[in-house]
Amino acid sequence: MDFFRGLGADLTADRCEKLQSPGYVNLAISLLILFGILISYLPQHYRIIARGTSEGISPYFVLLGTTSATATFANILVLPTSRADVACCKEVSTFECAAGLLGIAQVGTQWLSFSVILALFLIFFPRLPDLPNSTTKYQYTWRTAVGVALICLVHGLATIIISTALFLARPHLLGGWANLMGICATVLAAIQYFPQIWMTYSLGHVGSLSIPMMLIQTPGAFLWAGSLAARLGMEGWSTWGIFLVTGCLQGCLLVMGIYFELRARRVAQSTEDNSNTTFIAGYARSPRVDAETDDEGGAIVEDVLTARTPLLKNSTRRNGSVR
Q: Structure pTM?
């Protein structure tokens, strides 16, 4: 497959020259971002598996996130500068080629990681019997989850087919197609977090949504945007602009999630303290303690029944048997 198809000679020569003199600071940052992307999604994967449920994750967040990641991946693959970088691998060293393709690897890793979230969301989607109406306000059905997966699959196949057709028949249109995919990805990413923000706010807890993932990704989004901007320039705005938008929205979701987690811990601590206080006070109000002597002369202490005594205490122990 000829990646020079539809590319200007000046653009290709300029990209090959840049690949032959890579900036090592930007290279180090790009490698850090690549591994950071992979590591940042692992807490989310683990949390869904560990909890055994995807409860608390909005299906529309998964839908918009997956389609946005697909559009972003398609955008950077068909972008003229990216295709020129791939084509230059025939002329530069393996190291220079790998360094030049780190931007594509980053976006591909993000797409793969979010696709895993889609798979886990579907596998661990809670399929419980219908609950009372008061508890189903923010629940979604299994049909909704399957519908989300099918839409993501159809969108991915359509993107591949259209991109391939343009590459083979109308390569001069790939620049416009890349920008269209970038705009779609930006719009999808811009609204991606609104369903999740609303669901988290409505539930009052994060559910299976991972706070460590957002702690890594929120600042990482701004770092990633800067790295891609340095690599692609202003003409790559449709690629790096996505991450500026998602960084801001994910930051809002992160702040909300941390607030709910801290509030839940305060409530749990307050409940535990109140429970301990009531328990101690209940013993302090016990009217008396009876002591008996067992067969070996040891003391057996029995509490007189109080309001907090478990129901099993109603069984009376006599002659070593329980009645």
A: 0.72
